Amino acid sequence: MLRKIRIILASVMFTGLLLLFLDFTGTMHHIVGWMPKMQLLEAALALNVAVVAVLVVLTLIFGRIYCSVICPLGIMQDLFGWLGKRSRKRRYTYSREVKWLRYPMLVVFIAALALGLGTVIQLLAPYSAFGRIATNVLQPVWLSATNVLAAIAEYYDSYAFYHSDVWLRSWSSLAIAAVTLIVLAIISWRNGRTYCNTVCPVGTVLSFFSRFSWFKVCFDTEKCRNCSLCTKNCKAACIDFKTHSVDASRCVVCGDCIEACKFGALSYAHKRTNKQTDNSPGNHTNKKPDASRRTFLVATTALATTALAQEAKKTDGGLAEIEDKVAPRRQTPLAPPGSLSANNLAKRCTGCQLCISECPNEVLRPSTDLLHLMQPTMSYERGYCRPECNRCSEVCPAGAIQPIRHEDKVSTQIGHAVWIKKNCLPVINGTPCGNCARHCPVEAIEMMPLDIDDDDSPFVPMVNEARCIGCGACEYLCPARPFSAIYVEGHEVHKEV
Q: What average pLDDT is seen over the chain?
């Protein structure tokens, strides 16, 4: 029963989080948007005291159920381990805690948090690793499959599916995600929960509490026949059948050992000690553990939604082939509205890339800067940051992008537009344009004559920097190719206009 409950809850959590990253219609975050906020590191960075307290209490009561039920990377490891188990059963062995690696990794992680070394944090954080894999590896596969279905449906005059662009956001992020997936799959397939109990900083932190958990996997030495089935089925390598001991700091309460034991020598119950008990008849019972001891406290929330699939935003305007735009070299990168400042984004962002996956305007992409690798940055080659959209602030679980209202977003200045004379079409060939001024949502651009003393002078854009919010509509819609005649320079600290 313990194992079945764990599998059901883990399946719900993993499926919800995976669909959240794969979704391109904007509907899933209304249903399962609470799931990322249940991740321990992200809740701590967001200063969500209630969630952190609940997770700590759950660990003190039930042990490390977080790692087997809530953490998507832990559940993914179980999937790989299950595949490995089908090829070679009973392959695990007991091993001692690898303290020389486990605790130095935690020290490195804490130091990275204190120093704001985002790249180190993102490489070690479990939820971030899952997010990178889902966004860079799994989402393109998902979108490609839906595009095939859309083509088939179109052939039969059906619009049950529709086409979505599949584009590479960052080669470096894709490479890191692919390597992470391959290494994790090999380790999990061969050795089970090695990553959780040697590298993962969240698992190490929870291990301090799980040592004192109320419920633990315990031995009944009278029933034990030393068959070693429990040890051979323990993916955490924490059961020593020879000494009848279970390392609660590494046990993730998966229930595999209890199910594997043919003699009922293992149970999930409250015991003061896991040592061999007194052999007197009065100290043993044949009663089965109370079912209430095997239940978990899981928060459940569902919000109804009828959001429509977003419409395709890009057209070529005709039959002419349009040259792709090239991103300008910005002296200051653009941080999303709600992130408050580049410093706040760098300190709190764990690089899970959920905001990148959810961005409907294709503005966010992973940074290639070494110090902020895989954290979100903005660029306007494929779209612009629409004033009515605040989805990235809704889905961020770590507080790196604070929730921002639509009315506040139009008054938040994340940067300002800069005009490049040598790229402007009216200056180059005298072609009247004004596209940037016509589409500026805050009317921060006005067309003025380049030379006020010349009646035939071309009209060029003049930017009111005090009014510009840096949304990028001008940069995206500028017809100049490959470099826009106007682009947005970021601000280190966001301002109110």
A: 86
**Residue 457 pLDDT > 80, yes or no?**
yes
- Residue 387 CA to residue 444 CA, distance in Å, equals 14
Are the C-beta atoms of 321 and 5 separated by less than 8 Å? no
What one-character-per-residue DSSP string does 80-144 give? HHHHHHHHSSS--------HHHHHHHHHHHHHHHHHT-HHHHHHH-HHHHHHHHIIIIIHHHHHH
8-state DSSP, 199: T
Q: Cis bond leading into 482, ω under 30°?
A: yes
Instruction: Give pTM, 2 decimals.
Output: 0.83
Overall average pLDDT of the 209-237 stretch: 92
> How many whole angstroms separate alpha carbon 195 and alpha carbon 184?
8
Note whether 296 and 9 are within 8 A (CB). Answer: yes
DSSP string computed for 242-305:
TTTEE-TTT-----HHHHH-SS--EEEE--S--SPPP-SGGG---PPPPGGGG-----------
b/e map 108-138, b = 16+ CB within 10 Å: ebeebbeeebbbbbbbbbbbbbbbbbbbbbb
